[in-house]
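Researcher: Next sequence.
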Amino acid sequence: MTRRSGRHTAPWLGLLVGGALTACAVTDEANGGRRLVPPDDVADAGELTEAGLVFDVLPLDVPRVDAGAPGDGGGPRVCAPTETCGNGFDDTCDGRVDEGCACVPGTTQRCFGGPPALAGVGVCAFGEQRCGGMGEFGTWGECVGAVAPAGEACDGADNDCDGVADDGCECRAGETRACFGGDAAARNIGACRDGMQLCFPGPGGVGSAWGGCAGDTRPAAEACDGVDNDCNGTVDDGCGCAAGATRRCYGGPAATEGVGTCRGGTQSCAAGDGGVTAWGACERQSLPAAERCDGIDNDCNGTVDDGCLCRPGETRGCYEGPMGTRGVAPCADGTQTCAAGAGGVGSAWGPCAGQRVPAAEVCDDADNNCNGAADEGCACRRGATQGCYTGPAGTAGVGPCRAGTQTCTVAGGGAAWGPCGAQVVPAAEACDDLDNDCNGVIDNGCACRRGQTRSCYSGPAGTAGVGACAAGSQACVVTGTTAAWGACGAEVLPRAELCDRVDNNCDGRVDEGCECAAGATRGCYAGPAGTAGLGVCRAGTQTCAAGAGGVGTAWGACAGAVLPGVETCNSMDDNCDGRVDEGCQCTAGTTRSCYGGPAGTSGVGACRAGTQSCAVTSGVASWGLCTGDATPTAERCDGVDNDCNGVVDNGCACTAGATRSCYEGAAGTAGVGVCRAGMQTCAAGAGGVGSAWGACTGQTLPGPEVCDGADSNCNATVDEGCACAPGATRGCYEGAAGTAGVGVCRAGTQGCVVGSGGVGSAWGTCTGQTLPSGEVCNARDDNCNGAADDGLSCSGPTVTCPAPRTAPAGSTVNLTASPVGGVSYRWEVVSAPPGGASTFGSATTPSTTFTTVIVGTYTLRFTVTDAAGRTASCMTTVTMQGHGLRVELIWDAGDSASRVDMDLQVHNRLATAWAVTAGSANVCYWNNRNPEWDAAGAVDNPALDVDNLLGRGPENVRVDTPPTSQVYSVGTYFWEDDRARALVGTPVGVTVRIYCGDTLAAPPFTRSLRAGASGRPTSTNLANDFWRVARVQFTSASTCTVTPVNDVITGLAAQSGSP
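Model: Next structure:
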């Protein structure tokens, strides 16, 4: 529900004075006389109501529409000194419309007495006034049927016509909801049960707020009565019993058992640690729950669906328009649906959906304001038409000139004849066989007619039609209001002769000066006579080519001829002398078998023959090196005859890689207790020659007895000399018999510890137990005799909190609480805006300071503790306001948040790139926190107030007085992922909020960013994500336009210039 900023005290909040109810009290007799009351006026001074809530109430002495509501343009209503006759509004703000204005008796006009901008918003609607009097002129009467703005009535309608329904309303008057004033973990556990809050209306039905929480049952000391009095989920915890005994039990209020859905259960007594017995959980019981409006008595108070205004899903007709308009077409009823409350508790009628309420008259043949008359005050009817013509007199109907049509259009609630459409008026003469200027004469002043053509030729006389030369054609070209013959197109003029069997120069002769026909071919050969056709030698081809500029022709080079070369031993006649490979030792490319080892070893053991190939060097063919042969090597104990002497592994102790079992412990211990044999592996000697068995690995030998449930010394006896198993635990208690589990006394735990040198074990010290002590004033049974604070006269501390504060974000607020009877103190933040990190000057003294840079309201609690450990608390609020531009950045990387750093940046319109590794005077960021974009110290210079390193934020940039000429761009860079503990590729949730003045200017921007590389960015590491968030421009001191950009680029692109 929308709430206006500002905190005010409403007159009706003064009903409670000094704790005494002076009016509007409702007593809950079933809960000891606790009262259901409206919140008192101390709530506005920062005190808590009974339900722990602080109330915001709008001022009731000034109409909201005159206090700068959104509906009237955001500023106070301006009253004119005199009426503007005929506009139907109360310009002078005197409650009368168009008073003193002349009118024709019997005529009517629509009227509205509120601010003009609110007419037609919410329930506000125009009325009608009639001109009365006798004679030619009369005066306007009362404005009848108009609905003006009123205080918000919390009825689902926009009564104050500011565009927001029920703003300032906490709830619907008379509505109820469940509540609980104890620890949230105890709610509806054991005897604890919800109470009820009642919604109270403000004076005159304006505004509403929740009253105190009445009728709830909160945790109490366990009374050993078969009930879970302390609401911790265990019945009679701390109460002694006989092991194995059972009894009936019920954890809810005594009066609820057997009522509605509530039923008792059963408890069993069991022995715990140290032999201490206690009653277990109450099983199979059914306890009171919040009423869910389901036709069942869920809270077991004897009443079904109490606190439910209706049944969820039920519907009814509804209408929120002004009286007298219901059922007047087109106004019609809507439908309300009953909806369950939060968590299914309680119910209430929802908004009126589908209704049609009066709107401003819009001249559409309908009665929009539902006053029984359609389109009153309209000059014409929507959609009506009439003939029209705006050309000079006497031209309509001459040449192409024609009359058009006007249509009645509706805009801003009024009606008027629209522009004259489809008419044709005189235009400049276009030389197109039409009378364009509608003067009765066609194409007057034109040299030729649009579309005319004629023959043309611009070459030398006597060449047209000779050889390739030919005449072209001209067309009439119309430009604006003139016409002329265009260029001569498609003519062919004389050119240089191209040797293409055409008379190109048009002189009557074909291809004069050409040696051959371009493109013709002939055979050619330049080798010695008689070699063409022998061996590899072959003739080539010549082609006739045109000369420079296409003039003349000549035979080109001989292409493709093969001439005699050097003989290369390739089984071919390379020199074309009729003989093949003369003078060659072998034929290139042939192979033969070869072997380089001692005679008699080839083919023995690992030895094998290789291969030689015939190769040509300087034109001579010869056999190359022997490759691929295997010759004798040293014996390697690998099951192979490496030295090719016919004997495998001669000189080896074992085969390399073979294994065998081994054990080096005392005889008779192998296989006893934990002792086990190991394994040896055969390893080759130095250089792979010879072999030997390696060390015995994996064996387990006897050791000292370590009390681990195993025979560690392998003597066939387990854990001799051990009192217990190390690491085992058991319950223990050293107090007087019968005190364990009574009052604060509780059993502890003993752990089994290992003896000196790891030998033997024994039970350790009893830790965690609580033993009886002297009784002190703390509402607890310290001496565990079954009675709390017995023999003492006790009273606890008290405290009063300071009133709520409002201050600019980033400033320091002084706070002083007033405790009585305390010895220690604690300030803490109960609730804060998301990402609202804050600090206290001292969190342990009544007087302190509070600082934060995040805009919003912070709820603070001050707790005082006396010498007996009793506490008292109070609460107050601090509201941090923003002025000018505020940009806030927070992020969350889960458990890795302390390893991530984001960088918030804001730059001006002069920036050409973002600041990643290179700085910029036009970017406000961590390395340029206070750039001077204007004169030094000017209020329109930006400032980076907070730069959070390796955390969750926040980071903040502010500009106190931004000029309207400046455009700010907002961006965020994934700066660091803590280097060695890289989070490369892991998404981190990031949120940016932009405030203009004290208002969130756009919904929060959210995005997931990733580190593209580990660590901080460098000139060569710019792969991390850069988020371009939005652009901001102020239109006034407190309003701005936010244009989302919301795209992610790399740091490289951001630094290269993508602002």
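Model: The first strand starts at residue 16 and ends at 17. The CA atoms of residues 730 and 750 lie 5 Å apart.
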